Design the sequence.
């Protein structure tokens, strides 16, 4: 398969074609790994599936089978959001989000995190994205979010929405619109039943530590796969 190093800059209009949850998870995972494990990026299919199904830093947690990930990749490729590249014996995948959607780097980082972890406050987004991009302060995060919310119709319309304040919450959360309109009533119901035994900061710190470990494991798995391919050995469990 030939590599495509010049993906088309054609923009993706979410009003015409909202993404499915599986497509959003695949796209968000590619965006995350491009920044957190650049040595193993672009991703092989196996590494991508593992990243999509992580137990931490994901909301909701999914168990996407390989076949569904392949289908999502193909549909994202047709939307110019993902393209394939050859690396060794394995086909690899990388995102084309900034050019396809037509947003700056900071906005893409926020949208990628919202796709992976669901609605978050500006403060949570600043903390959770620090391994992707270091925002100066919460005000700068808010500024990019408001720009995405006020995006003109000529550019495809709003890409995020500021949700109503949840009962007992100090700050409002933001959600992406790449999968279509947000069901605010369902989100508020889920928040009401969410556990409150740990503080927000405790949860953020713990998930960040786990995410670092999972990134390391993903990198080691990819390196092991490459080694097997170079030596002509079968993968463990495939004999």
Sequence:
């Amino acid at each position: 398969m030939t590599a495509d190093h010049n993906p088309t800059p054609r923009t993706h209009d979410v009003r015409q074609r909202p993404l499915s949850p599986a497509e959003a998870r695949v796209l968000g995972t590619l965006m995350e790994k491009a920044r957190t494990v650049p040595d193993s990026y672009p991703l092989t299919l196996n590494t991508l599936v593992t990243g999509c199904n992580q137990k931490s830093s994901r909301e909701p947690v999914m168990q996407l089978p390989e076949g569904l990930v392949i289908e999502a990749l193909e549909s994202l490729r047709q939307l110019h959001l993902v393209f394939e590249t050859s690396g060794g014996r394995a086909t690899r995948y990388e995102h084309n989000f900034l050019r396809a959607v037509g947003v700056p780097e900071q906005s893409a980082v926020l949208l990628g995190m919202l796709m992976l972890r669901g609605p978050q406050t500006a403060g949570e987004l600043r903390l959770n994205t620090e391994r992707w991009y270091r925002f100066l302060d919460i005000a700068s995060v808010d500024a990019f979010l408001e720009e995405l919310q006020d995006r003109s119709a000529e550019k495809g319309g709003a890409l995020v929405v500021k949700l109503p304040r949840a009962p007992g919450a100090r700050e409002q959360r933001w959600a992406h619109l790449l999968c279509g309109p947000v069901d605010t009533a369902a989100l508020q119901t889920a928040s009401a039943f969410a556990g409150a035994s740990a503080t927000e900061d405790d949860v953020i710190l713990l998930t960040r530590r786990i995410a670092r470990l999972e990134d390391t494991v993903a990198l080691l798995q990819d390196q092991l796969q490459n080694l097997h391919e170079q030596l002509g050995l079968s993968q463990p469990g495939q004999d």
